[in-house]
Specification:
The chain is of the alpha/beta class and 661 residues long. 51% of the residues lie in helices and 21% in strands. The chain contains 24 helices and 22 strands.
């Protein structure tokens, strides 16, 4: 069919097609560029707005009053593109609203995480309100994008107007073109279809023509050069870490897959390198110092390693080296150099020298020996082992090593916890309760402490002392605390008879949960949702976790007290400054650690400590609970001293909560 057309018709069709392709490409690129430009302009305007109003917004946070609100309302009316604004303090409390804020509240949680969010017609952006590098709060703005969209539509309309004229011009040009001119177009079409952005260079098209053909070729070459440059930048960004310039996780995993799937018989080696106490460096010297240290370490390693090795930053202060080795001596030399590199390193920041060290986990492997997932897990295990052995240490992975087994077991336990929390009704968790018995006077009402028990997939019991330390290490305690609190309230809130006979319930908390915004929100939701006598709830916090957390959670603790919820200090006497904290922390109940109760009959010092705790608690009008009560002799002695309650196997073993209901 195509062969039946005359050369002129073919040329007209080709020219028309090329013009359409170029126009469509131009429209696409222009539209994308306009969109990016629109977003950048809107973001810049929002940042400029916040910067210009920073002092006024600070006043709103620090000392809100009607005059300030009126003044800032007046200033904000000058920003036509601003649809709405909300000011929050550091506790995410709303202090000020302007105009349309419904959408801001809708997207608030997403903006706290991502800071910037676009819809079709609006930009939502979170900006810190700060002074002297200290953040007092943040503001979320709703910026209208219609002004930018109108300009984009206007410019695109002009491009659309040009399009038919370009078609007409191509028609008349094709009428006068000779057969020899078809060759450049074929070359141009071939270059477009064969373009490969992964090539390291592009070959520009050349022509002897001095007319429009040359201009077309020059324009095409310029466009392809720009596309090639952008492609190379994207390829680089996709494979390199932005901060250090080293390879990133994506490139590392790609190279690791190549090694694992290769036909080579080479011995490969993977070094997982972690900076010791890097979090402390960030906290004490600041994140700028931490970033500077990472860049300097990356540069030092890059200068030391072999050219054919892969050095990547995969996460935070976690670096990885991949390379092939020929002998064990070569491996030992590499490990020694890697450890020595940082042990001799002195990081100078603000004219102060700071020592730096690393922990290195080493895994040797051959092609097809492991999967990527298996090798990654082994690498993390070896690094974990190195860290447990102390600073400035390297550990070479060995199968069936005891430390490796312990790490694997801990990872499995953490996985079990996550699965139990995510499962329907947390069916692998079960709540137990242990009686807390009054010693000074009999009561028909009962008190108990809520305990959590866990089973694995096969139904095997996992002791609390096996999974709770793991939960703490993997930062899962807050999730467990929320599960226990919510599940307990669901089970007992509808049992009015049980609640009537209940004197108090003690629920354990990790001290850090008191500072966790999610937990704070959850307990407030519980108070709204459940019909429960909150004055009967005692939240237990161990002495060691209370220290350092209570000072940061004063506002929330005051709120708990205001709604009637009590606080109990668990395991008292185990800390370094127990009696000082007993005097200063706002507890209603003091639970005396069982180690004192167990030995009080044989150790006069333990008995004296129990008496002293009781006397101080009495002065502060606090009740006391003695743990680890195992005999009638214990009960008699504690009753004589004046301890309010007892708890232990002699008074009642833990039993499932459902048996109490």
């Amino acid at each position: 069919m195509w062969a039946k057309f005359s050369l002129k018709i073919q040329l007209i069709l080709i020219m028309t097609f090329l013009v359409i392709v170029i126009e469509a490409s131009t429209l696409f690129i222009v539209e994308r560029l306009y969109k990016q430009d629109r977003e950048h302009l809107a973001i810049d305007q929002a940042k400029t707005l916040v910067k210009s109003l920073n002092n006024d917004l600070l006043k709103v946070i620090i000392a809100s009053n009607a005059d300030q609100f009126s003044d800032i309302n007046y200033r904000l009316t000058g920003f036509e593109n601003l649809d709405g604004l909300v000011v929050y303090d550091n506790d995410s409390k709303e202090l000020y609203q302007y105009e349309q804020t419904e959408a801001i509240f809708m997207y608030h949680d997403q903006l706290v995480k991502n800071k910037i969010f676009f819809t079709q017609d609006n930009l939502y952006i979170k900006q810190d309100i700060s002074a002297d590098n200290y953040s007092f709060g943040h503001t979320i703005l709703n910026m209208n994008l219609k002004q930018y969209q109108e300009r984009q539509k206007r410019d695109l309309f002009i491009i659309f107007l040009i399009f038919p004229f370009a078609l007409i011009l191509s028609f008349f040009i094709s009428l006068y073109l000779s057969k020899s001119y078809t060759k450049p177009f074929a070359l141009l079409s071939h270059s477009i279809s064969s373009y490969d952005p992964t090539k390291e260079e592009i070959t520009p098209l050349k022509t002897q023509a001095k007319n429009e053909i040359k201009e077309l070729f020059d324009g095409f070459n310029t466009m392809m050069k720009q596309i090639f440059t952008s492609s190379q930048q994207l390829i680089y960004q996709a494979s390199h870490d932005e901060l250090t310039g080293t390879f990133n996780r994506f490139y590392f995993e790609k190279e690791l897959k190549k090694m694992l799937r290769s036909d080579s018989n080479l011995q490969y080696c993977m070094l997982n390198i972690n900076i010791d106490n890097f979090k402390l460096i960030n906290e004490t010297l600041g994140y700028h110092a931490g970033d500077k240290l990472l860049k300097m370490i990356a540069h030092s390693y890059a200068q030391t390693l072999k050219d054919d090795s892969v050095f990547a930053r995969v996460d935070g202060d976690h670096f990885v080296v991949l390379l092939s080795i020929k002998t064990k001596d070569e491996l030992n030399e590499l490990i020694e150099k890697s450890v020595q590199l940082l042990s001799d390193y002195r990081f100078v920041w603000e004219q102060k020298a700071n020592s730096v060290s690393s922990s290195i986990g080493v895994v040797c492997f051959k092609a097809n020996e492991y999967t990527l997932k298996e090798l990654t897990k082994i690498g993390n295990s070896s690094l974990y082992t190195a860290k447990t052995l102390g600073k400035n240490t390297a550990y070479i992975y060995e199968k069936n090593d005891e430390i490796t087994k312990r790490f694997d077991a801990e990872v499995q336990t953490a996985s079990n916890i996550k699965e139990a929390l995510a499962g329907e009704e947390g069916s692998r968790f079960e709540l137990f309760a242990q009686a807390i018995v009054p010693l000074q006077e009999k009561s028909e009402k009962y008190s108990y402490e809520i305990l959590i028990r866990m089973w694995d997939k096969e139904g095997n019991f996992i002791p609390p002392d096996s999974f709770l330390p793991t939960a703490n290490r993997y930062q899962l305690m807050c999730d467990i605390d929320m599960y226990v609190l919510w599940t307990y309230l669901e089970k007992v809130s509808k049992d009015k008879k049980h609640l009537k006979n209940l004197h108090s319930v003690h629920i354990n908390l990790d001290g850090a949960s008191l500072n966790n915004p999610t937990f704070q929100k959850k307990i407030k939701e519980a108070i709204e949702y459940f019909d429960f006598p909150w004055e009967k709830l005692e939240l237990e916090v161990t002495e060691t976790s209370a220290i350092g957390n209570f000072s940061l959670a004063n506002e929330f603790i005051s709120w708990l007290k205001s709604v009637g919820i009590g606080l109990a200090l668990d395991d008292f006497g185990t800390g370094m400054a127990s009696f000082e904290y007993l005097k200063s922390l706002p507890f209603d109940i003091i639970k005396i650690d069982g180690s004192f109760i167990k030995d009080m009959h044989n150790d006069p010092m333990d008995k004296a400590v129990i008496k002293y705790i009781h006397e101080i608690a009495t002065l502060k009008k606090q009740e006391t609970v003695a743990e680890y009560v195992e005999t009638q002799e214990d009960v008699d002695e504690l009753t004589k001293i004046g301890i309010t309650y007892g708890q232990g196997y002699f008074l009642g073993k833990p039993k499932p909560l459902k048996e109490w209901l």
